[in-house]
Specification:
This is F-box domain-containing protein. This protein folds into two domains: 7-50, no CATH class; 52-60 and 72-104 and 116-349. Helix content is 35%, strand content 16%. The protein contains nine helices and twelve strands. The chain has helices at 10-21, 27-35, 39-49, 77-89, 125-132, 157-165, 204-208, 278-292, 331-385, and strands at residues 52-58, 96-101, 140-144, 153-154, 170-174, 177-178, 193-197, 214-218, 237-243, 263-269, 301-305, 309-314. The strands form two sheets. It has a ten-stranded mixed beta sheet, covered by helices on one side. A two-stranded parallel ribbon has the order 4-6. Strand 7, helix 7 (204-208) and strand 8 (214-218) form a beta-alpha-beta unit. It is extended, with a radius of gyration of 31 Å. It starts with 9 loop residues before the first helix and ends with a helix.
Amino acid sequence: MSTNLSTLPPDLRIDILYLFVAGSRNEWADCITLSLVCRSLNETCGTVLFRSYHLDLRVPQHPKPYPPGSARDIWDEELIRIRLAHLQSKAQFVRILNVTDVGGPFELRDDSLGSELAPFPIKYMLELLTTLRMLPNVTSVTFTTAMSPKVKAVVPVDLWDWLASINLLNLSFLGNFVAPPDVMFQPLEGVNKLTIYPASLLNKLILDAVPTNRVHLAYSEDHELFLYKPTHPQLHTIDIEIDVLGRQFPEPIFDFSEVPHAAIEVDASFHVDYKFSIPNAWREAKTKLQKMFFEDLSGLDVDRFKTTCVRIVRSPKAEWKPEKQDHIGGEEEDEREAERMQAYYEMKARDSYDQWVSPVILKRDVIFYCIKCFIDIANCKGNVTG
């Protein structure tokens, strides 16, 4: 007895699809091929092909986007409406949505509220929101704009209300997203993970309005710092990335005293261009680490790794105790490291001299010797002739 594929439960059809493409060298291409067989397979493959959807409104002019029909840094209403229509046609498949708009050309940038040149302009949000409300199964949303501190993307209240209305698990803001003036967002309940990059004073209101289970913050050196003091009782994991070189910390920027139940991991880097700068950079980083935290670092595990990184960890487990305090002492080891770096670069200098300079000097001496010989021979011939 034959079975019509369309009569099978959706989950079973997806399992069958995965069996078809299992072990394939290019599952994506095989899914596209299968989607052209019939309507049932088209709908089944759509769950795989359009699970993660990228909606590009405007992307940077350089490097040149491919294919040629991709968005540029101008607002092409017709092209954007075509993309929105395509997203609407795949609405039932989308689970992970990424929306990008970097705004107009940088030299013409106008970030004032309502400007078409600003990222995510208010006047065009109605069409975008109409499309977003057609996505019934989205659980992860990422908004991306330019990373420059001079570019600000205002998050409309209607867009925030849409986020509050869906079953949102993961939310990411990549770029300078800010709340409208004099607006307090309603809390987004139920979010499992919030990611903000770059974290700065500009998006602090957004950070405070998402009582999430897990926070991932990445700091950029060009943005203004603020005191991050989480208080949400459901927060159980905090991941932070920050480069401490080139920054000053007149006041602490991390206070975790209100969330003793949360696991904390702060990766502080002090990257330098040349290895001989590492010892001095590490000495500077050790001083700054103690200024960054409101709490005493004796209650945290401070572990230097990968030469130019240090990881600060705290676990909520009752039996946990910090094992490393690499920021304390170690002056003798720092001096030995500096001596090793000095010896390394002296060796590199000798090798470069032997490889490049010595052969050149040798060739010069040979040439001078040959010239001298020719001169002596010419003088001898002149004397004989005379």
